[in-house]
Design goal:
- The protein is an all-alpha fold and 305 residues long.
- It contains 13 helices and no strands.
- The two termini are 15 Å apart.
Length: 305
Amino acid sequence: MTNLLELYVKLVFPVLVGYTLGRKLPAIVPTRVGQFLFWVGVPISIVAFLRKADLSGQIWMAAAIAHLAILLGAVFAWVGIKAQAHLTNTVPHKSTQGSFILAAMVGNTGYIGYPVTLSIVGTQYFAWALFYDLLGTTLGAYGLGAALAARYGGGIHTHLQVVKAIIINPTLWSFGFGLLFRQVKIPAPVEFWLEQIAWSGVALSLVLIGMRLSKLTSWHSLPRASVSIGIKMLLVPLILGCVIPLFGLTGTTARAIVLQMAMPPAFATLVLAETFNLDRDLAVTALAVGSMVLLVTLPIWLWLF
């Protein structure tokens, strides 16, 4: 319980700081902070934490399970849409369907998943979260996610744009560099400050979450958002969490993967919603509510797994 309370302090305090700053600072500030984290902060954190991560075992399974979770979330969301249409005789607009499916399938395994995983399972198991995020969530969001967004959205976008979004993602490049940099010996003071910078990037990502939440004002999509969150944060992790021991993944490894599966909807869903003219209000509401629901669901996953 003490560790959980300590985790809540580490998670909630930076978010509250960000929420307060977000209400006082110009709207451009969260955008600039996000750009800094995307291009500098998160890549440095990945390089630093990879130095202490354990890359042995079937670590590639993390990415495979991530794609399975994404597909399962999409299937459940599609079934939910069909069930609603059958029960109410009303079919949501295609843009709403698109946001609903994206929110149910892609999780915030980076900005929120990294701090949670690092705090609970430590740097030794960080590679499992990293593989899940980079080779699972990132590729899933800008691969299948972008394809679905283009289908349900109002504009026509080329596959080249999707490929470009993946290729220029600096987290993927830092992942490759971090694997090579693991073999390089550096002085202890440099190692120390590299780790401090990395943890500062983690804290700043939580501050950014608070800044983003301070800008959210629309709640009329709460019923639909709640269903997509239930699929993303409860149904999928529960089903796959019970299945992954069959693949030989147990203990802390299984916990690291389940935590990533149970993350709230990703900011990538909002990016895709804005890019492909989907239901932005639904995407925004799912992000906000999911981030708050995480505080309630975390103890459940820690108890179960």
